[in-house]
Amino acid sequence: MDTPPVGRRWPVTLQHRDVTLRPMRLRDAAEWERVRRRNASWLRPWEATLPPNSSPGPPTYGALVRNLNRQARQGRMLPWLIVFQPEEHSRSNRPVLAGQLTVSGIVGGSAASGQIGYWIDQRLAGRGLTPTAVAMAVDYCFRTLQLHRIEVAIRPENAPSLRVVEKLGFRSEGSRPRYLHIDGDWRDHLIFALNGDEVGDGLLDRWDHRREQDQIRSAGESVQDAESTEVPEPVEGRPGEHPEPAERHTEHTRPIEHPEPDERPEPVEGQEPNAHAS
Fold first, then answer.
1. 53: left (phi over 0), alpha (psi -120 to 50) or beta
2. Domain with 176 in it: what CATH number?
3. Which of 48, 22, 276, 15 is CA-nearest to residue 151?
4. Which one, of 214, 278, 266, lies nearest residue 63 by Cα?
5. Is residue 219 part of a domain?
6. Alpha carbon of 143 to those of 4, 84, 137, 199: distances in Å?
7. In which domain, by residue range, is 70 found?
8. Is residue 128 part of a domain?
9. CA–CA dist 202, 28 (Å, integer)
10. Exposed, middle or buried, 14 (CB in 10 Å: 0-12/13-18/19+)?
11. Cα(18)–Cα(4) distance, rounded to whole angstroms?
């Protein structure tokens, strides 16, 4: 049996700009349950479910957190919350629970791999939080845990999740029929993967560069649209003057890794919910 890879001891927190990945805590219960209830219909089609005659999972949030953290301390998974820090000038700049990202099935040895799953609050979808969180997690797995391969399984109907792996440059590896039990039945999934030697200086740097280029392109299109709608009065003898667009400076940072105080709860046996990006 493959053993878990050697890496930083759990708990681990990663931070990049306005996105933080941190461990689930018992005191997150009220906010976690509130976000989950609000997003029930948004998440239901992609939620992992248990096949008939399966043993039930942890019955409470507390049991879930203890179970996930126990497996994390064993090096078999990384159960993170996605936390978003709004801009300072927003009405409330308190960090908010934006979603969840889990690296599960972590093994070392000849496989040296893991699988990533995630969900995001519908209110915060489309802001680039999920690709940023996935890139942070992938870089941690490749650099710190020294994994070779990271995989994501996505239902063909899940267009938002497909856009995440497309933006990050995951390689498509085809489909697996009736691969995971999702929303009450066995569902087909598309498989996407990255190997450590495919990301160069890091997936997060690549994603940041793409976002910067998209912002510059969008700004240029906005300038062109504005110029095409303006019809200035002609001035004889003066060529049209068009100011150069201002330079955009985007700060590049890497995740900051620092340990969280370990609550060391008692282990609770049970099956954690799959956090696949189904």
1. left
2. 3.40.630.30
3. 276
4. 266
5. no
6. 15, 24, 10, 11
7. 12-211+254-259
8. yes
9. 31
10. buried
11. 30
End-to-end CA distance of the chain: 27
As to burial, measured by CB atoms within 10 angstroms (0-12 exposed, 13-18 middle, 19+ buried), residue 140 is buried
User: Which amino acid would we find at residue 186?
Assistant: W
The count of domains in the chain is: 1
On whether residue 217 sits in a domain, the answer given is: no
Kindly report the number of other CB atoms within 10 A of residue 96's CB atom.
Answer: 16
Reading the chain (278 residues) residue by residue, the pLDDT tens digits are 566 665 678 999 999 999 999 999 999 999 999 999 999 999 999 999 999 988 887 679 999 999 999 999 999 999 999 999 987 655 667 899 999 999 999 999 999 999 999 999 999 999 999 999 999 999 999 999 999 999 999 999 999 999 999 999 999 999 999 999 999 999 999 999 999 999 998 999 999 999 888 888 877 766 666 555 554 444 444 444 444 433 333 334 444 444 444 333 333 333 344 455 66
> Whose CA is closest to 152, among 125, 172, 122, 178?
172
pTM of the complete model: 0.78
In a domain, 276, yes or no: no
